[in-house]
Specification:
Length: 135
């Protein structure tokens, strides 16, 4: 069974009203987009005798647009939504148990010479990854 957290996180972002762009999984490309993608640096916190594992897994949410106000406002809306104390992002296939999110503040990462603004927001998911027959 594949860990479906990135799919569930993307779905959760797409619930937010008035973002203007639909979030998709993948890296920021050449055109206007809102993307969710994994980062390196995940780590195992604890492993239990049954094979389940508590992990911290980092992800980035990035937006690319020519309108800096839209970029900033969108990222702050996502930040507020994901920072909610009661947020829960359950697995659709029972591959993990959601324990929480650590959400950074959005930041302007790049202004390209042709007028594109790129903002990023980093989140770290605290998950218990369930052992499966395949692992």
């Amino acid at each position: 069974m594949t860990n479906d957290f990135i799919n569930c996180l993307t779905d959760e972002i797409n619930v937010i009203q008035d973002l203007g762009l639909k979030a998709k999984i993948g890296f920021i490309g050449f055109h206007e987009s809102l993307r969710v993608y994994p980062l390196s640096g995940g780590k195992e916190v604890t492993r239990w005798m049954n094979g389940d594992c508590e992990m911290k897994l980092p992800y980035a949410i990035g937006i690319k647009t020519k309108n800096q106000t839209v970029a900033s406002d969108t990222m702050w809306k996502i930040h507020a939504w994901l920072s909610d104390f009661d947020i829960s992002i359950p697995s659709n296939n029972d591959s993990y148990e959601f324990e929480g999110l650590e959400v950074s503040t959005p930041s302007l990462r790049e202004v390209e010479k042709d007028g594109w603004y790129i903002y990023l927001l980093d989140v770290t998911a605290n998950l218990i990854i369930k052992k499966t027959e395949e692992s």
